[in-house]
Design brief:
Arc Repressor Mutant, subunit A, Rossmann fold, 2 domains, alpha/beta, 12 strands
């Protein structure tokens, strides 16, 4: 049974979501503020976190910073509908995906399953390692290195990088990246892929300097350059 940590100060919403998640086979732990929730993450063993942005004591954004400083656990942000600034900031800080509130329990469960399913599919790949120039990934261990130096990636970042590595030298559309990396279709005006790829580039650049191994193909998608 997969373990979900649900962090939101809306008691009524949390109760409804918890009931639905458990009816769908998820063991669900709840917290009602960012401080308590981040402490639960650091102390517990969870498979995924659902984290609201607007909360007392510690906002979801600050809680995400704490979580990402210690863990690559998948995180789905709950954001206000139309609040692009918080949504993009959450993705830039390492959130794996977002769901706009108000949301239905069914939609949230679909996003949770998509992220967990993609991680499992990647884990089941039998390749011991894949090498593209100075970049090496180990799909089974979900580990990546550049020139023997580790790249600290979130679960979704690793999924997206693996898709690019497996298609090195070829353009991968944003639609395919969303389907294969996020486990869901790309929606109109969705910048999730762009934000995640920007983060991956920055993490590689922090090790490799000015290397631009991931190329943007305008209005099409992205390509990992095969050197």
């Amino acid at each position: 049974m997969k373990k979900v940590l649900l962090i939101d100060d809306d008691v009524e919403l949390v109760g409804m979501l918890k009931e639905y998640l458990e009816s769908e086979g998820f063991h669900t732990t709840t917290a009602y503020d960012g401080e308590q929730g981040s402490q639960y993450v650091l102390a517990g063993q969870f498979d995924i976190v659902v984290l609201d942005i607007m909360m007392p004591k510690m906002t979801g954004i600050d809680a995400l910073r704490v979580i990402r400083a210690h863990s690559t656990l998948p995180v789905i942000m709950l954001t206000a509908k139309g609040d692009d600034a918080d949504r993009i900031l959450g993705l830039e800080l390492g959130a794996d995906d977002y769901v706009a509130k108000p949301c239905t329990p069914r939609e949230l469960v679909a996003r949770i399953r998509a992220i967990l399913r993609r991680a499992q599919v990647m884990n089941n790949n039998q390749a011991t390692q894949i090498i593209v120039g100075d970049l090496v990934i180990w799909p089974e261990q979900r580990k990546a290195e550049w020139a023997n130096k580790p790249i600290d990636l979130t679960s979704t970042e690793f999924n997206l990088l693996e898709v690019l590595v497996r298609n090195a030298g070829h353009v991968v559309s944003k639609s395919d990246l969303s389907t294969q990396g996020l486990g869901r279709p790309l929606t109109k005006f969705d910048r999730t892929i762009d934000v995640h790829l920007s983060s991956i580039r920055q993490k590689i650049a922090s090790i490799a300097g000015e290397s631009q191994c991931i190329q943007t193909i305008y209005r099409v998608g992205y390509q990992l350059i095969k050197e």
